[in-house]
Amino acid sequence: MGGDEGKSSDSEERFGEMIFESILEERVFRFDCSADDRNAAFPSISFQNPKVRDTPLANVDEVPTYIPTFECSLGQQIVNIEFRPNTSFYGTGEVSGQLERTGKRIFTWNTDAWGYGSGTTSLYQSHPWVLVVLPNGEALGVLADTTRRCEIDLRKESNIKFVSSSAYPVITFGPFASPTDVLVSFSRAVGTVFMPPMWSLGYHQCRWSYDSDSRVREIARTFREKGIPCDVIWMDIDYMDGFRCFTFDQERFPDPKSLVDDLHKNGFKAIWMLDPGIKHEEGYFVYDSGSEKDIWVQNADGKPFVGDVWPGPCVFPDFTQSSARSWWSNLVKDFISNGVDGIWNDMNEPAVFKTLTKTMPESNIHRGDSELGGIQNHSHYHNVYGMLMARSTYEGMKQANGQKRPFVLTRAGFVGSQRYAATWTGDNLSTWEHLHMSISMVVQLGLSGQPLCGPDIGGFAGNATPKLFGRWMGVGSLFPFCRGHSETNTIDHEPWSFGEECEEVCRLALRRRYRLLHHVYTLFYMAHTRGIPVATPTFFADPKDLELRTHENSFLLGPVLVYASTGRNHELYKVQHKLPKGIWLGFDFEDTHPDLPALYLQGGSIIPISPLYQSVDEIKHTDDLSLLVALNELGKAEGVLFEDDGDGYEYTRGRYLLTTYIAERESSMITVKVLRSEGSKKRPNRKLHVQILLGKCATIDAWGVDGEILQIAMPSDSEVLDLVTAGEKQLRIRIESAKSIPDMENISGHKGTELSRTPIELKSGEWALKIVPWIGGRIISMQHIPSGTQWLHSRVDVDGYEEYSGMEYRSAGCSEEYSVVERDLQQAGETESVQLECDIGGGLVLERQLYISKNETKVFRIDSGIVAREVGAGSGGFSRLVCLRVNPKFNLMHPTQSYISFTAIDGSKHEIWPESSEQVFEGDLRPCGEWMLIDKSLGLALVNRFSITQVHKCVIGWGTGSVNMELRSENRPVSRDSPLKLSHLYEVIRIK
Q1: Is 4 an active-site residue?
Q2: How far is Cα 176 from Cα 29, in angstroms, rounded to an integer?
Q3: Cβ-count burial of 161 within 10 angstroms (0-12 exposed, 13-18 middle, 19+ buried)?
Q4: Which entry of 236, 346, 803, 987 is annotated as an active-site residue?
């Protein structure tokens, strides 16, 4: 153990370097603020074996490369770790927005975040984990091992800051030679992904909801008739009797076993939803049995907590108790007898309707097992509630049939959830932004230990257009988890729903997935047994390449590079592709299309290619095996293929075949052979088809017998050039002759909507304003006519008067295009007015009205609000968390003579001068409805008046020759009936 700590004069405050000890394996360290803090830390829920975190390695005398510092005060533990310049950050679990996380801040608090945006700071899962990539390509990982709400602040370059309740340990993994090495070490701590049944890696079709068994049969039949591969159809909540879990609607789903039998005959599996909210209803067998066993989450007064979800008033199982988990597992076990192949755990953050927090009170009581932390309030167990539910579901499925691998999908999760369940990226939107973000979101989850994930292809909320849906299917078909899903009251979102061109793109995309299915299954075997990630950022091919670290429209599936078009106006084959260094050879299945991603295979690699299947049920081990080979600079290549029964656990008893194939060129001959084999499963008697990639999708083909040496004559250099030239020509012909999906974007707007590229001038009385609707609706000029003063510090594209919709700097609403809804309103008392609005995603609109009244010519007013237009029913009518931030940047015409003055609510008087740092005023320290920017040299003051009932914080931030005077509303969800509003005005007055 090493490190030191210091104390300030206040005995309640502590600071210093954290103490450390080695755990798990070499280069893995546990850090605590003190020995007492180490002993006070709660048991680990993220570690697969919690004792590993708490047991130091014997006879190890290592010193970590990076030692965190800490501050402890008022029950909060703040940890900072400083790295070298040009360090890059990734991971942080399920997060939206950019791939490289520098500049971001998130909060781990599992949240029903329907319609989230790129700046949303809390989504459905919590992973207080950061993958750190150093400038030289080495990497390490940092885990704040706490289940409580945790702030992960990466806004300072090359610095990680964690803030959470005391006391919690910080675990570091590395530095190791590569990011992959870090993730392998991390997996040895938190566990690897469960081994998925092979059928679960096929395509899944879902909707909220296929409302009857006849509709489900129709969907299945259409897939087969159209030759579009698919393995799974999903049942959302409407299959239930009044949303009661473990029941079936007797009119729409009268015989679920018969339905599933029919699906199985046609090669489909069926997955059914189960939510945690159990209807509070005597006589309902689930409620009655749970009440008898006393397993519900309790209020602070010890009575069962009742909150509204889909069935109405509900109680919630306390999954922190082994008795509750066993009770749930037994229900699942019985449920499986209806022919259930997989289970979908939704709403398990847990989501609760009719409450602004969107979850149960933090004061609720969980009577947890001692090894989880014992009796604690909900704030302690909130982030692991969904994970523990998924665990219970997984264990129930395993009890029901020990010969089948469970498949569970969970919306909420925590570090370690991958041991029990797959996940998806929640209720996304049918927008190009969400298509683009889906790549980063999938790989971030993989970099946080959860490789089996994917988005709702096409977007859950809203109506996709043909081009958006087809492009999304193109890239989504190659994500680890591949599912199309859409919300109720949207148009149909099946692959054939958007016209012939889109249908053909979807067919080609899903056929690609099934051709690569053995490769994906092998990747999951490596992830399950060794912790090697499945989908990774492109820079994993060359971690030293700083430019690749922010590349967001491509990713790696092992050695396969998927290069996608994720922008509406981005034409894939009209731009040069940024590839990692080394050899990358393009390939296709004679299916290259401008709306599908380009595929490359890294030199030195061999991957298996499957025959074309409509479902996994069609696979036979005697089918021909194809190998795709890309030689490296030395003329060598290597790859592996994992084969077993595709389900069950015989592979754990040695009944599998893991084959390593190699290819090597010597002179004009390429030899392909088996280097080694593992497992007791006998090699099938089958043909072997080898394709040597030459580039531009050109190949040399040869046939042999699997397991025998195959020698292939290499053409001369001139012949290879001819083949590549011919391949390039065929590639160009395929691109030019393909029927691209038509661009049929629907731009929705309100009557009178106008999109302008000319600044709007608002001039009346003492004020002349200029507004640019097309970049954030910002005010770029705010001139006071009598004094001739320009108060705003602005350019057209930045600064000036801005408004945001979230806690994150420059969140949605800041830079988007606004619509001009009305101009020059002739309402009583108004002579100049303009009304703007901006769609900020998730069914939310940011509205702003600016006006100068003829009765008050000295002032101009701004009324702003965030309103819910189309918030999804899936969130109980409430949006994601939003905060209305009014953020003007004002000129300091005489910086040394300028300051801000106000009287606070508590009566205290304040003068804030430019040498001050950023200051936040809240509670009774807020200005009492008015603050002013005073220029003593001019004898003028810009007065800003507002309602203290609408403003929860006032923030002052000084810049060079400028100052921000920011007003912030409360941070909460909104519904149709509870918008966020903030009204304020400006006036210039003379001062003595």
Answers
A1: no
A2: 13
A3: middle
A4: 346
The amino acid at residue 253 is F
Residue carrying structure tokens 């797959």: 422
* Per annotation, catalytic residue among 37, 275, 341, 349: 349
Lowest mean pLDDT among 107-121, 736-750, 959-973: 736-750
| Higher pLDDT pick, 579 / 854 | 579
Q: Looking at beta carbons, which pairs linking 852-856 to residues 24 or more positions away fall under 8 Å?
A: 852/762, 852/764, 852/765, 852/767, 853/829, 854/764, 854/765, 854/829, 854/830, 855/829, 856/765
Q: What is the Cα–Cα distance from 756 to 836, expressed in whole angstroms?
A: 11
Question: Which residues are CB-contacts of 719 (< 8 A; sequence separation ≥ 6)?
Answer: none
616: CB partners within 8 A, 6+ apart: 198, 199, 201, 202, 231, 267, 517, 646
Is residue 717 annotated as part of the catalytic site, yes or no?
no
pLDDT of residue 116: 85
User: What's the rounded Cα separation, in Å, for the pair 79 and 101?
Assistant: 18
Q: With 0-12 CB in 10 A as exposed, 13-18 as middle and 19+ as buried, what is 810?
A: middle
Q: In whole angstroms, what is the distance from residue 89 CA to residue 106 CA?
A: 13
Whether the Cβ atoms of residue 131 and residue 549 lie closer than 8 Å to each other: no
Contact (Cβ atoms closer than 8 angstroms) between residue 80 and residue 156: no
The DSSP secondary structure of 955-980, one letter per residue, reads: EEEEETTEEEEEEEEEEE---TT--E
What are the two backbone dihedrals, phi and then psi, of residue 712, each rounded to the nearest 5 degrees?
A: -125, 125
The first and second tokens of residue 510, run together, are 């899903």
Kindly report the backbone phi and psi dihedral angles of residue 696, in degrees, each rounded to the nearest multiple of 5, phi listed first. Answer: 55, 35
Band (778; pLDDT cuts 50, 70, 90): confident
Helix (H, G, I), strand (E, B) or coil at 82: strand
The pTM is what?
0.84
Q: How far apart are CA 208 and CA 459, in angstroms?
A: 12
Point out the catalytic residue in the list 5, 427, 503, 706.
Answer: 427
* Banded pLDDT at 790 (limits 50, 70, 90): confident
- Cite the DSSP H helix spans in 24-103: 35-40, 50-53
**Residue 494 falls in the annotated catalytic set:** no
> Which residues are 554's β-sheet partners?
563
Mean pLDDT of 373-401: 98
What average pLDDT is seen over the chain? 93
Average of pLDDT values for 386-414? 98
CA atoms within 13 A of residue 294's CA, in its CB half-sphere: 5
Burial class (CB within 10 angstroms; exposed 0-12, middle 13-18, buried 19+) of 576: exposed
